[in-house]
Amino acid sequence: MENLLILGAGGHGKVVAEAAMLTGRWDDIAFLDNDTTLNRVIGIPVIGSFDTYLDHSKAYSSAVVAIGNNENRFVWLTKLEQAGFKIPVIIHPSSIVSKFSQIESGTVVLAGAVINADASIAKGCILNTSSTIDHDCVIGNGVHVSPGANVSGTVTINDFSWLGVGASIVNNITIGSHVIVAAGAVVISDIPDSVMVAGVPAQIKQSYGDEL
Ligand SMILES: CC(=O)SCCNC(=O)CCNC(=O)[C@H](O)C(C)(C)COP(=O)(O)OP(=O)(O)OC[C@H]1O[C@@H](n2cnc3c(N)ncnc32)[C@H](O)[C@@H]1OP(=O)(O)O
């Protein structure tokens, strides 16, 4: 058995940690977090701040990042990878993942999520509680699909986009990079990069230009 370091002991971190425990794959799990007041979270020790990650590379061969912000999560995932940590995929045992799908390192698939055949999920994504990714979807790096969001077949979602809770995406469309799809939105047409869309049907509410 191997040991697992989880960067981030907040709400998302504890959900990721529980999923990891339930896999039975790791016998020692620890958190790093920048909140120095944290000692234990759901019984798991917090053994240092993020910057101490190199100090733990001998004791912990594997590491994942449990930070909600898509870009930060990816920055830390890259640092861990470059430091030689193994970056696993964590799949909650109560999710349903097609054996014909592909999932890259650092992605977490949480309880009740469904990933169907020929879906391809890149690095460092969050497929949150009861979200669905249907057949032939292509999901880029660092994407977060929030709880209960449904992505229909043959949808492309580019890097670092975030689907809010309960969002729905119809089939055969492309969502750009750094897009925010608001909670409950229904997306029925392609969405360009770096915008926030909301409503039914979803319309552009904000453009981020060079901010991102
Ligand atoms: C396990 C977990 O907890 S995972 C986390 C899950 N969390 C979520 O899914 C949260 C999703 N967040 C949202 O939907 C937010 O509303 C965001 C991020 C899209 C927008 O937040 P902000 O940038 O603060 O936007 P703001 O509140 O200023 O709204 C901007 C405009 O969009 C509209 N808007 C924002 N969200 C929505 C929405 N969900 N549906 C419809 N319209 C919306 C606002 O009414 C406003 O419209 P107006 O300009 O016509 O008045």
Automatic annotation (TrEMBL):
<dbReference type="InterPro" id="IPR011004">
    <property type="entry name" value="Trimer_LpxA-like_sf"/>
</dbReference>
<keyword id="KW-0808">Transferase</keyword>
<dbReference type="InterPro" id="IPR020019">
    <property type="entry name" value="AcTrfase_PglD-like"/>
</dbReference>
<feature type="domain" description="PglD N-terminal">
    <location>
        <begin position="3"/>
        <end position="79"/>
    </location>
</feature>
<keyword id="KW-0677">Repeat</keyword>
<protein>
    <submittedName>
        <fullName>Acetyltransferase</fullName>
    </submittedName>
</protein>
<dbReference type="InterPro" id="IPR041561">
    <property type="entry name" value="PglD_N"/>
</dbReference>
<dbReference type="InterPro" id="IPR050179">
    <property type="entry name" value="Trans_hexapeptide_repeat"/>
</dbReference>
<dbReference type="Pfam" id="PF17836">
    <property type="entry name" value="PglD_N"/>
</dbReference>
<dbReference type="InterPro" id="IPR018357">
    <property type="entry name" value="Hexapep_transf_CS"/>
</dbReference>
